[in-house]
Amino acid sequence: MSRVSTPSNGAGEAAKLYAPQAVQSLATRLAKASGVSNSDAEMLADALVDADIHGVTSHGISRLNIYIRRIQKGLIDSDAGLTLDRQLRSALAVDAGNGLGQVQALKTLQLMIPMARESGVAVATIRNSQHFGAVSYYCNKAADQNMILLATTNCEPAMSPEGGCQAFFGTNPIAASFPTGKGFNIKIDMATSIVARGNIIAAQKSGKSIPPGWALNIDGEPTTDAAEALLGTVLTMAGHKGYALALMVEILSGVLSGSAIGADVGSMYKNMDRKQDVGHFLCLLDISAFMDVAEFKNRVDGMIDEIKACRMRPGVEEILIPGERSHRRAMENRRLGIPIDPPTRKELQVLCEELKVPFTLDESAAMEVVS
Amino acid sequence: MSRVSTPSNGAGEAAKLYAPQAVQSLATRLAKASGVSNSDAEMLADALVDADIHGVTSHGISRLNIYIRRIQKGLIDSDAGLTLDRQLRSALAVDAGNGLGQVQALKTLQLMIPMARESGVAVATIRNSQHFGAVSYYCNKAADQNMILLATTNCEPAMSPEGGCQAFFGTNPIAASFPTGKGFNIKIDMATSIVARGNIIAAQKSGKSIPPGWALNIDGEPTTDAAEALLGTVLTMAGHKGYALALMVEILSGVLSGSAIGADVGSMYKNMDRKQDVGHFLCLLDISAFMDVAEFKNRVDGMIDEIKACRMRPGVEEILIPGERSHRRAMENRRLGIPIDPPTRKELQVLCEELKVPFTLDESAAMEVVS
Known about the structure:
Strand order of the largest sheet of chain A: 2-3-4-11-5-6-7
Shape of chain A: globular
CATH architecture of chain A: 2-Layer Sandwich
Oligomer: homodimer
């Protein structure tokens, strides 16, 4: 497996690898210096570095700068508590108080775990939240408890309903993790768009065109021009099916939670004058309410073996289980370090200077240069 | 909107329209004559005719014959009770006792409704079941209670994991309905395959080729030959994303329930020597546990208005909401009758003769011929 190829800055400088602990420590100190409490800062840093470890660099440390900038502008309340608008034995309607998405989602999950242990299931809606990073982070936390978390979130507008050409839905991901006896979780974490918007941004930066079928221009016509696509809309996965899934996610995360819906969700980068008001949906199942955990894992492992033994298509060398590639990447990144590209490193350095935090990711701290 | 074009028999005879009540009454009498109890027969008939009313003819009265044949062979226990393997406040692990899928799923849903009313949420796994028809039937029943049902089922093998070319997963659908104030439910009910296997069967029957990207032949190579495709595998929607969704459905419905998994699920038509052992997953949310129902409907209706007002792609005349087309079809079918194709009518006639049930769908009972 080749190393992730991270974007390089204009000067063509390469990304460098850093020890996850070093990055996490710096992220914690920066968050604390921005007014986030000790324990919340640790939660946020853990979530960000976990994404980088799993190769989801788009949801990792590269997001810390914008979170801090939004805290500084009063667009995120770093001191927000959780308010329970409604509470039943298995249901929570949570107001995140415009707090940090990662922190509020993780605190909500911590409330849900004993509920699910007692009743078999717990479901929470969270309103008034932010971008909360990689959804699978929370799903994996649940899997550690021998629970299954199904989770969705709405996000800033990027996709149109089928037939339309105006950004309404976010890329509205669906995620779930399932514990196995194989040393990794089955992990599903997919945008309901045909492709992550980040891929189009990357194509534009490198001056490349995008494949047909990814996006429409502002007039609703298919385009392979990345810049045109960014002004237009990303297409849903599998056309009307992806539209239906994005709509389902919007209702569960946005409508039912009481957060902003569709085009009203704030953009993290573009709207520096208002909060995002993102909504999340978490559905937590305690496996032991349905079946002994050992039996569940045996059954999952048997299924994995059968899937991997399937006859393969011409040219295919291995059938992968969702989550397997990400697990391999995580093993490698824990050992070799996580890649941080020069623009992100520069942002962190500037933050350190502003917030009087020692910058500990200088050249000498790098473990390796990504080839 | 044009009438549904139903398959005609070899002689080219056209489908005819019948009053839903007449079809439902006949289905009830046939099920009773096959040993199904009065109330169970009524449940089954209601589920089948509801599918026909909504235009899902593949899951309607056309399935009654195979259900009865399997009852006659002892492959379905028409007298099965529901056994609760495990029960907590919000969780049920149900053994359907190899009973009729529609009946056992509906009875499970009826147990879940008061649980969700009390705790906010109820989740059930059902094992040892059969093909249970259109998943959206149950979702719509929940929407009638101002609840949201997320439902999945595994099914007989048809699709391969990404990279493989052996049928492992069924077309594993995902369904959910959401009540609105617009006179129809938002209804999502999609196979995780790129296309329903029925479309390939229809192409084969009419001697047509299928579009590229639908299926692989037995060697894992792309094919546009419908007969080759039926020996091979249907592709998942959106490649690896559909694979991940099908896997999620398999774990929730098959693994967690204790039913057969993947390739071990019995085929309703091909395996006339063993039970199917299908598994279902039902997750029921009481809207009022999270938000007042009136507020929820207002918010959904506002979203619908915004979606329908989106700027449209060139050539598009209307943006439809999932469930809207099916609702229009249902209004029309309730008024004009449901189409029954000649082979299905013939099957029903033969069943009537065998079971000494008066055949009430003769020519004179037809309301109209489908053009």
